[in-house]
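BUG: 3D viewer hangs when loading the predicted structure for this chain

Environment: internal workstation, default settings.
Expected: structure renders.
Actual: progress bar stalls at 90%.

Input used:
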Amino acid sequence: MRRIRLRSTVFLLAGASLVAACTVGPDYKRPAAATAATYKELEGSGWKNAQPADTQIRSAWWEVYDDSALNALEQQVASANQNVQAAQARFRAARAQVAQFRSQFFPVVTASGGYSRARSSENVKFKSSAGKTLDDWVVGADATWEPDLWGRVSRSVEGAKASAQASAADAQSALLSMQAELATDYFELRGIDRERQLLDDTISAYKEAVELTQNRYKGGIATDADVAQAQTQLRTTQAQSIDLGVQRAQLEHAIAILIGQTPSTFSLPVAPLVAVPVIAPVGVPSALLERRPDIAAAERHVVDLNAQIGVATAAYFPNLILSVTGGLEATNFSQWLLAPSRFWSLGPTLAGTLLDFGARAAQKAQAQADYDEGVAQYRQTVLTAFGQVEDNIAALRVLEQEAQAQDDAVAAAQRSLAIVTNRYKNGAITYLDVVVAQTTALTNERNAVSIARRRMAASVALVKALGGGWDASALPTDEQLTHPDAARQPASAPDAHDAAPS
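Structure tokens produced before the viewer hung:
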């Protein structure tokens, strides 16, 4: 009867704890962040602000440049780039931490077994076993459970889930950053190939000019100064062409590292830049909050910090621990597993801190300050994102105008060179005038190539600033965080540790 009453008492305590359980601390609300109705740099640009029905950026955003070599390289980033692999590993670690905190919802069960043989002293009074040698066979199990009365565990799990989602967003942000860096380096390398092609074509023209001046010198029409100037112009341009090899090699090495290869085993064939910048659908500023992985990571970090306030608040309340112990013990092996050998105990423990001289208050104040810092960082991330979009919209708009003006300058310089060359052949001017015209024409052509490279870099940067086709709906859900087999990867490549069979 006493055993029945004891069990009933425990069950009633457990039931009462579940009914009375509550979650202390503030419930999360997304912090307000400054947004605008539209992007300022779109005004007067002639670009159409994307509407919901417009085509949005795809996850494989680099395919809009229609470059098969770039497509092949980008596909290797997710699976081979080591920074991306490290970010994915951090996500898996954060997801495992969710499971660690969730385990606190359930009892901790331990089991033990052992055997000992001992002899008691004969000089011990009032002990029936004095002077005897006894065996001790024991096997038992212990179970302890702390009901989540005040939501400490719930808040910890809430924070761990938010932290894991932030880690998933960080992994996507790392992937997008590596993809954008690869595209930028690739177009820069192709731009150098285009500039080198330009210099090689110019070198061929300068060789003809040297031959022309030498023939005119032999004919007594030109001076040796004309020959020297033509040769100087040729050698200078050859040196400029050779110098581009340093930049190309460095970019090729950088691309190799981005795709997880050693520079010594990777090379890209020469192919001049032919791609044109793409204007990504910008959309409204408020949509950026859901499209940038770094904004999502900052916002999820705020959720985690908000949950930590609840954890600090729960420390003000007492903890209830329910424990039960049972097993079998005997001094004779033959009687070890019989019913009379059983033992057990169970009972609740209620414990709380009465006086800590402000320690809990300080912990809660620190948690609140950490939350305020997280909110400020979130808002700063949003502002930075808006600034990056505006910067690259402006860059594309201005560079487009600059490219048109530079093309006109190139055409004018070419016409001027043709006129000056004809006048030199007719003996109306010295070769110095030809050198000046050649230098002006080459400088303008190289400037045009430089602008083309900058336009491609700004186009890639705008896609990156807009999130690269990512959306906050891609964050892992609670189900995916608590069941790793069903979890989506934070990046676009399957993970070797978690890939489910098809």
